[in-house]
């Protein structure tokens, strides 16, 4: 048997090509057979050795829900109230602040006129 290395490598390449073609031609049929057997025997993916995919679940906001703050200020025109803190100022307070700033009045002084418990 006097064959060279290049002859052997060429035969290997030809056989690998045949293998790839054979796999491709039989693959769909094999998959269908496997699906039928898995369904018939009620085989789970865990029994086949697969691991369930890890799904990222965003952590829930663990900040405690705060009770609504007690109202400190009241709009005499509408009766709307505001606690004086936590978040954005309500529209009625924001419009008053804008008016005070235009007239050169101080917020700290003017807001006192709207206190519920003076």
Walk me through this protein's architecture.
The chain is mainly alpha-helical. The chain folds into two domains: 58 residues, no CATH class; 42 residues, no CATH class. The chain is 44% helix and 3% strand. The protein has three helices and two strands. β1 and β2 form a beta hairpin. The protein starts with a helix and ends in an 8-residue tail after the last helix.
Estimated helix fraction: 40-55%
Identify the quaternary structure here: single chain
In the predicted model, the low-confidence regions spanning at least 5 consecutive residues are: none
Which value, in Å, is the CA radius of gyration? Answer: 39 Å
Q: What characterizes the major β-sheet?
A: 2 strands, antiparallel
Structural class by helix and strand composition: mainly alpha
Number of self-contained structural domains: 2
Q: SSE order in H/E notation?
A: HEEHH
What is the averaged pLDDT score? 85
Overall 3D form = elongated
Can you count the helices? 3
In which order are the strands of the major sheet placed?
1-2
Please report the total strand number as a whole number.
Answer: 2
Beta content comes to under 5%
The termini sit apart by 112 Å
Please describe the topology of this protein.
Layout: H1 5-40, E1 73-74, E2 81-82, H2 91-102, H3 107-110
Antiparallel strand pairs: 1-2
């Amino acid at each position: 048997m006097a064959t060279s290395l290049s002859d052997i490598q060429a035969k290997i390449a030809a056989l690998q090509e045949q293998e790839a073609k054979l796999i491709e031609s039989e693959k769909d049929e094999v998959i269908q057979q496997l699906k039928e057997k898995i369904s018939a025997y009620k085989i789970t993916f865990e029994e086949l050795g697969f691991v369930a995919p890890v799904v990222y679940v965003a952590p829930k906001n663990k900040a405690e829900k705060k009770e609504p703050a007690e109202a400190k200020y009241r709009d005499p025109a509408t009766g709307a109230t505001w606690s004086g803190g936590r978040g954005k100022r309500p529209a009625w307070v924001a419009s008053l602040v804008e008016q005070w700033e235009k007239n050169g009045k101080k917020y700290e002084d003017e807001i006192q006129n709207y206190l519920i418990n003076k």
